[in-house]
Design goal:
alpha/beta, Rossmann fold, five-stranded mixed β-barrel, 9 strands, about 30% helix, about 25% strand
Length: about 270
Amino acid sequence: MTNPYELARQAADELRSKSGVDSYDVAIVLGSGWREGATALGAPTSDVATTSLPGFFAPTVAGHHGQILSLNVEGRNVALVAGRVHLYEGHAVDQVVHPIRTVIAAGARRVVLTNACGGIDRAKPAGTVVLIRDHLNLTATSPMEGPPPPEEFGSRFVDLTDLYSARLRALALAAVPGLSEGIYAGFRGPHYETPAEIAMARTMGATLVGMSTVLEAIAARHLGAEVMGLSLVSNLAAGVADTPLNHLEVLEAGQAASASLGALLRQLLPIL
């Protein structure tokens, strides 16, 4: 069976061929609700269906599209990855992080991971965007499990001390007044967390909770990319608010915030 790093190389070669982009500078993974905001970055120069690339699977979650859009923004080649898949869809870890490995193999050295999340901190209500400072991986797995990476990719024992780049976070906080930081707890899903699990995450230091991002961040850091994480708080988490949780409010929060999300991405691109 093709190892996941070679499969990412094959997919990157196919992406370059189909998009006409020789090398990307930045990749932005679009979480639930972020696709609408990303339209503010401009018209794409190409739209590649992810299922036309080796190793990709079609997303099954509303709000996730199977596309990689290419844009040139102020001289930077940007890949917008609208093809995230999750563990809870039945995918293996290597399949979940395959899009990230692919865009990095296609040249991207800076990766922005966006998501919609539940808020644990009442001071950050729905509609707030939070810069991820660190994470808790509560998925009980890792993209570094299994056979060791080929020698050219370095050790599986990747250092995560600066996982969410301190350099990029400092630049983002300077560029966007009022942007705050938080710690993201990544659960496996697809069910929402119980109030007890949210209380546990809060005790462990988390201020945000969701079902993506953590595995992608680890895979990106292993490959030497600088990582930035951005969470849109779409609802307060279980036990923080009295209202029931549902995925529709996640999509609605993204639509309501689309203009501000687009403006935020435009502010951040010059520092990437």
